[in-house]
């Protein structure tokens, strides 16, 4: 990136005839409240024999370009959005600015803060085996589901003894660390 900036400043910068295209028209991302999520898009140079050089930036401090500099005919640009302080249902929009030797481009982005995923899981998880599969595939949602006491409510009818879903922990002590402890203990007893 420093070399391109130096070329521009010393007027040795040469614009290449052709254009850049992008894998998406709008970079969209869905993120949970208070969490971060990553997305990506690809930049394509129209002249395969002449790679594009440039950099990508955005004005919004929550949006971070993980791939700031690119050099190639097909480059993947990774970005990360942090939703700290945002509420469910919030939506933010902005633009990526792509400055290259093929010219300047903008690519709009939109981030939506999704509703709590665990609330919709209750109807799908009705057994301990179903919850185990959820924990295997989506640990964060499983922890949310477990800490919100939804697991106990969801499988209560099948329980043979009270407190089996929480390892006997009182509801106000169920946290992410206690859920990890419970699941380690449960997994150890199965082997």
Q: What do these coordinates show?
A:
The chain is α+β, with helices and mostly antiparallel strands. Helix content is 28%, strand content 32%. It has 6 helices and 9 strands. The strands form 2 sheets. It has a 5-stranded mixed β-sheet, with no helix packed on it. A 4-stranded antiparallel β-sheet has the order 1-3-7-5, with no helix packed on it. A hairpin with a 2-residue loop joins strand 8 and strand 9. It is elongated and about 60 Å long. The model is unreliable at 161-168 and 170-174 (pLDDT under 50).
N-to-C series of helices and strands: HEEEEEEEEEHHHHH
Helix content: 25-40%
Strand order, main sheet: write it out.
Answer: 2-9-8-4-6
Radius of gyration: 24 Å
The rough form would be described as elongated
Structural class: alpha+beta
How many separate helices? Answer: 6
Instruction: Report the major sheet.
Output: 5 strands, mixed
Number of strands: 9
Note the beta-strand portion.
25-35%
Low-confidence stretches: 161-168, 170-174
- Terminus-to-terminus distance: 53 Å
Question: What are its keywords?
Answer:
191 residues; alpha+beta; 28% helix
Brief synopsis:
The chain is of the alpha+beta class and 191 residues long.
Give the secondary structure arrangement, pairings included.
Blueprint: H1 2-9, E1 20-22, E2 27-31, E3 36-45, E4 52-58, E5 63-65, E6 69-72, E7 74-82, E8 91-100, E9 103-113, H2 117-121, H3 128-137, H4 139-147, H5 150-155, H6 176-190
Parallel strand pairs: 2-9
Antiparallel strand pairs: 1-3, 3-7, 4-6, 4-8, 5-7, 8-9
């Amino acid at each position: 990136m420093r070399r391109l900036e130096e070329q521009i400043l010393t007027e040795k910068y040469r614009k290449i005839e052709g254009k850049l295209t992008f894998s998406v028209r709008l970079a969209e991302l869905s993120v949970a409240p208070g969490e971060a999520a990553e997305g990506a898009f690809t930049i394509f140079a129209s002249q395969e024999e002449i790679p594009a050089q440039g950099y990508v930036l955005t004005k919004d401090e929550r949006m971070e370009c993980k791939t700031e500099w690119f050099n190639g005919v097909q480059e993947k640009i990774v970005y990360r959005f942090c939703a700290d302080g945002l509420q469910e249902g919030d939506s933010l929009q902005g633009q990526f600015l792509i400055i290259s030797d093929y010219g300047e481009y903008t690519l709009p982005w939109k981030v939506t803060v999704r509703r709590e995923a665990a609330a919709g899981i209750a109807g799908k998880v009705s057994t301990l085996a179903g919850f185990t599969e959820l924990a295997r595939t989506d640990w964060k949602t499983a922890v949310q589901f477990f800490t919100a006491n939804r697991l106990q409510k969801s499988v209560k009818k099948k329980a043979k003894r009270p407190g089996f879903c929480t390892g006997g922990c009182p509801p106000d002590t169920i946290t992410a660390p206690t859920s990890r402890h419970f699941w380690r203990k449960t997994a150890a007893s199965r082997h």
